[in-house]
Each structure stands twice: as structure tokens, then as C-alpha cells.
Amino acid sequence: MNPILDYTLLLCFAVLSVAMFLALWRLFKGPTLPDRVVALELIASMTVGLIGLYAIRTGRDAFIDVAMVLALTAFLAAIGFARYLEKGSHRDDH
Amino acid sequence: MIIDILAALFMVAGSFFMLVASLGVFRMPDLLTRMHATTKSGVLGAGLIMCAVMLFFVDSGVTLKALAVMAFTTLTSPIAAHAIGRAGYFIGVPLWDKTVKDELHGRYDEETHVLRSPEQMQDTQEKP
């Protein structure tokens, strides 16, 4: 593999790890449940990016299918949480 | 060589936008401002990384799958953000204390989910 691409991949993994840690902090700390859901959605979106980078690093294109399925599943999780919040909880009850 | 450098540029740009989204969700004071930070930047970062994937694997099948990932994230992320924001407003998540404008405040009935327009409010005020 081209060394420029190799070092850039390492840099991008490091940056995405820092970003994942920041989103994880919000997931633990977030004052209300919708904040946590937003952080979870961002983590899923970043995982799609990480899988793309990993597919480039290993050179296997089968990982792109995983990214595709994960992008759809994260959407279903967010919709489920929103419906649960709206229909199943009381007002001012976080 | 040139294609590798282009893919590296796309990867760096995508990772940067994801870091910006994560900083937004870490630093912003409010549910709606956090969603404003994550929804757009996260989708843009994933799309740029998928562009890098397309450039690296020069293959039509991979390009189609990466385009499908981009289309799915672009279609689903605004819908999910709309649903979460709506649910968060309905269950009474507090807004930021420096929020300038909340146009639904006082006009929206959370029990019956009926929104009164300003003209209707004037009518009900003038009738008695």
C-alpha cells in the first residue's frame, strides 16, 4: 500500500477515536434521554465511517455491506426511541 | 498514486467533519443545538469517507454500494433528527436559557396535539 495512504489511515483512525470518545462522554453524561439518543446516532454514523476506513485498510470490499446494514439499523433504532419517548412517557418525566 | 492522494484527502476531510460533529455534541448547551451539530456534519463525514472508498476500490459494485450508503444516510438522518426533536419537545426537554424564540410556546396543546395559528388566537380573543 502507498505509505501516504497508510499514514493517513492511521491519522484518520486516531481522529475518529477521539471523536468517538467525545460522543461517548455525551452518551454517559447527557442530561435527558433524547440527548443520549442523539449521541448514539452520531456514534452509529461514525461507526459507518470507521468501517469504510477499515475496508480501505484491509482491502476487502465486503465490509461495505456491513456499513450499509448499519446505516439502516441505526435509523430504525432512532425512530424506535423517538416513538417510545412520544407515546410511552409522561411529560416532564425524563 | 494520484488516486491514493485524492482518497487520502477525502478521508481526512471526512474524519475532520466527524470530529466537528462530535465536538458539537460534546460542547453545545441544548438538545436542539446538539442535533444541529450532529445531523449535518455526521452525514457529510460519512459521505466523504464513502467517496474515499469509491476512489480506492475502483470497482462498479463497490461504487454502487457506497452510493447506497450515502443515499441511506442522507435520507434517514433528517427523518431521525426530526422524530427525536419532536419527541424531545413534546416530553418537555428544557431549552437553552439564552434561547431567543420559541414559536410553539403557548400555542401548542401537548395533550390534544392541536396547533393554533395566530389568526385563530385573535378570533378567540375578539369574540368575547
UniProtKB/TrEMBL annotation, chain A:
Keyword Transport attached: yes
Cell location: Cell membrane
Membrane-topology descriptor: Multi-pass membrane protein
Main subcellular location: membrane
InterPro entries: MrpF/PhaF-like
Family stated for the protein in its record: Belongs to the CPA3 antiporters (TC 2.A.63) subunit F family.
Name of the featured protein: Cation:proton antiporter
Organism: Alkalimonas cellulosilytica
